[in-house]
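Usage

Read records sequentially. Each one opens with the input sequence:
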Amino acid sequence: MNIQKQQAMRTVLYGLAPLCLAALYFFGWRFIAVLAVVTATGLVCEWLMFKRYGFKVTESLFVSCTLFALSLPPTIPLWIAAMGIAFGILFGKMVFGGFGKNIFNPAITARAFVYISFGVPMTAKFIGNATTLGFFPAGFGTWISQADSVSAATPLVTRSVGVLDLFLGFSSGSFGETSALLILLGGIYIVYKKAANWKIVLASLLSFVLLQTIFWASGLQIATENGLVAATSPLTALFSGSFLLAAFFMITDPVSASQSTDAGRWIYGAMFGLLTVLIRTFSTWIEGVTFAILIANMFAPLLDTLLKSAKAKKKQKSVQGGAA
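and closes with the structure output:
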């Protein structure tokens, strides 16, 4: 099989490598099984489209598969993981014409599909203890089963995990969202290597923290199943869930993001950060990252078109003014 090489995609994989190792360390060998099933399924889907329509199989596939696997909860059934990536690759990427033509991020398209279709498995939380989510050997060498879970989502639901545990990774959640430290290190690496645009990342972080701070400082009360609770502090909200992972590795996807102008990048990133806070706060979907990315992806082409058109008109007026 001839796979088109993409250095930027390979750089992203290098940035994700510490998160994969952490997933293996904290949650055991089941992560390897999930990653293997997801990658094999995604590769078959792209190969079939390649054979039928001549689309190229690119290294971006491995980034999509790795991101999707890292976004899944430790107890996800393997068959659901396979169905998710098949949907993401076929309907989030290949139906648009393959890499470079897709509107939506394939990994987040896959996550949205399984999140909506299989709500209970996607909101199951692994219950950690001293031998699983603590220090060595943590969960290394274990095999998590569905019996190890209860119906709950990320630490965004319980709000009982300390900031330090969220930062280091000693908390429950999806495979790749537990350690904010490793996400930051990998994210800074891909920004430094210019595989991700720093303007989109910074706009996402600033808008998220700003709106979350406003809600928290104003004493906003949020309706939950257990009654009204206060808005989460900005630091806890930032380190909880998959926002950091998405801000560095998903929203910066070079195809589905706004990339034509610097203004578009700032607006696009800010849109994602604000939408994440709003969806987390006022909707029943406690983890708002998935839908925030899809909405931002939808507006990216329009945003680029409007800004390029405005820039062209401004340039034309400038030329006409100079000629006069």
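Summary fields computed downstream for this record:
- Strands lie at 3-4, 57-58, 124-126, 149-151, 221-224, 227-230.
- Residues 3-312 form one domain.
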